Amino acid sequence: MTPSAAPLDHVRHEVDRSIREFLDRQRPLFDDPQLAVLLSTAEGFLTGGKRLRPAFCYWGWRAAGGGEEPGMHMAAASLELLQASALIHDDVMDASDVRRGMPAVHRRFEQVHADSGWHGSAGQFGEGVAVLLGNLLLVWAGEMWRTSGLPAEALAVAQPVHDHMLTELMCGQYLDLLEQAQGESTFEGALRVALYKSGKYSVEQPLRLGLVLAARARHDWIDRLCAQYGTQIGIAFQLRDDVLGVFGDPAETGKPAGDDLREGKRTMLIARALAEASDVQAQAVRSLLGDPDLDARGVERLRSVIEDTGALAACEGMIKRYLDDALHALEQAPIDETARTALAALAVAATTRRT
Amino acid sequence: MTPSAAPLDHVRHEVDRSIREFLDRQRPLFDDPQLAVLLSTAEGFLTGGKRLRPAFCYWGWRAAGGGEEPGMHMAAASLELLQASALIHDDVMDASDVRRGMPAVHRRFEQVHADSGWHGSAGQFGEGVAVLLGNLLLVWAGEMWRTSGLPAEALAVAQPVHDHMLTELMCGQYLDLLEQAQGESTFEGALRVALYKSGKYSVEQPLRLGLVLAARARHDWIDRLCAQYGTQIGIAFQLRDDVLGVFGDPAETGKPAGDDLREGKRTMLIARALAEASDVQAQAVRSLLGDPDLDARGVERLRSVIEDTGALAACEGMIKRYLDDALHALEQAPIDETARTALAALAVAATTRRT
């Protein structure tokens, strides 16, 4: 299988190995029987995941002339720990029950508390442990990045990008909470959340990190490629996420059907639907969206509104345009040819995925 | 005022200035009116605090021969951001209402949500924002540490200590949650929590960081001083915290009277009280400790049991012994004399404080 045909598969094996290696380094601290569960839960959680962020980072590195190097695999893999941290905290903040087809981390520890007949609130215990495990993965993501084995000069150039990405991620998640709470559904608001919450941190910044690490400088062409290809694939990635959050197959997404509707997420799909909705349709959205007890019929009703108003087709059209524009920008960039082919395939994979 | 007479005051001004300087660097990212509140909340929170951790770090640095250096003030001050992160998350995990005499961060954002009549659960919104703000402060603590301006060689030697401290902090907080949930009250358990949750991260590791940064190496005498003076003052610091959590004056601690009792904290005071309690007294502890609605009378009843069983006097005796042993260890260390005097005063301040 050539790398260009399978840019994700090419990275997966090395990312998995790097994660195992890093966790093994932490193991001595966790030989205490009471602490062991923290490491094993992190390990279990980290076996899932598409490895998309490491792939963008790795292929950015190759694009700017980097070769195969264990340090790069380790640095790229650290982005998977960051993502694990964000998902575990996200599930607490959204009060989600399920992740990757399994009970969310806070629910698992809530269950342990309930089964053990411990003191205090089981829910509060579960949330507390999930906050701490997310924190642990967040600090480990930084440690793994810095101790990856890449040359200090390369890391020094990339570190401000890394720092910026983390601040941007927390701000993006805050904007997401705020939009949901304010219940406004404008195109601009939805695009902004898509870009800050997920787009930048899932695609643009991992790509930039790889490019800057290999180039050991922040060239104009890197910023151009990140601003065009990176931003557009980032937004399209999040729009695909939004579509899957409403229409995805639970067997593939690992989340219950219509979960985003139940959580009241203010996505581009919703903004588009409300802009074109009749009074009756708008009323249905207002009364059903964000209802924590939304059942299968309610999900079906909202899906119909989203399809009938043309919102679904409009979002698919946006995804296609962003993808086309990104691929065009990719053509112009002065990068390695194998990486160009891989980044094109990765762009398609990120925006047409079913999970 | 000489440094030796006021080792905290000596550091406070420079720590405050460093925090302002770091936050000013972040400001451009927060000129967005929706994001500004995150920065201003962080700023407000960071004006409080005893600056104890930066002081141990700074005087560790001076002890191993370091001089006045802006980079050191910045590095030491970063520990205050880490502490702010831990407190904001702690208040979420403990469902605490008040911190430093003000509503806890999650309660403040809950109130904003309620006052604005936004969608969804106000409580969930408040908790979500507090988790994110704590994350922001956690990643900033790392960034501030690394970009302090200290020489790269010094930071490289100290970085593993810093990484270890963060992992240990999360593990210690997990053990605290677990002890509280399991409701066991053994001396060993209480000591372990005191050491891991707070002692190491409040005293021993900040001190070690300062020592290692100045010495640019991990000498045996550093480990000895940290294991003796550092560990003992760390435990005594937490035991003082436990006493203040039950007997402290709300006007000074900034927390409601008897807050630790309401939260069901399994401290050394409780372990000691239960070990000596009559059946009636033990029954009172079991029925009142951890009751979220515990009123002033209940607090008074528990205080009486803790005093009458001799638990309070026993804890005060432990604090005194740890302090004496630590001061003795300090005498033996091959360190700068001004720093020795300051560390002695700091040890007294940390273990006899009223806030």
TrEMBL record, chains A, B:
<dbReference type="InterPro" id="IPR008949">
    <property type="entry name" value="Isoprenoid_synthase_dom_sf"/>
</dbReference>
<keyword id="KW-0808">Transferase</keyword>
<keyword id="KW-0479">Metal-binding</keyword>
<dbReference type="GO" id="GO:0008299">
    <property type="term" value="P:isoprenoid biosynthetic process"/>
</dbReference>
<keyword id="KW-0460">Magnesium</keyword>
<dbReference type="InterPro" id="IPR033749">
    <property type="entry name" value="Polyprenyl_synt_CS"/>
</dbReference>
<dbReference type="InterPro" id="IPR000092">
    <property type="entry name" value="Polyprenyl_synt"/>
</dbReference>
<dbReference type="GO" id="GO:0004659">
    <property type="term" value="F:prenyltransferase activity"/>
</dbReference>
<protein>
    <submittedName>
        <fullName>Geranylgeranyl pyrophosphate synthase</fullName>
    </submittedName>
</protein>
<dbReference type="Pfam" id="PF00348">
    <property type="entry name" value="polyprenyl_synt"/>
</dbReference>
<dbReference type="GO" id="GO:0046872">
    <property type="term" value="F:metal ion binding"/>
</dbReference>
<comment type="similarity">
    <text>Belongs to the FPP/GGPP synthase family.</text>
</comment>
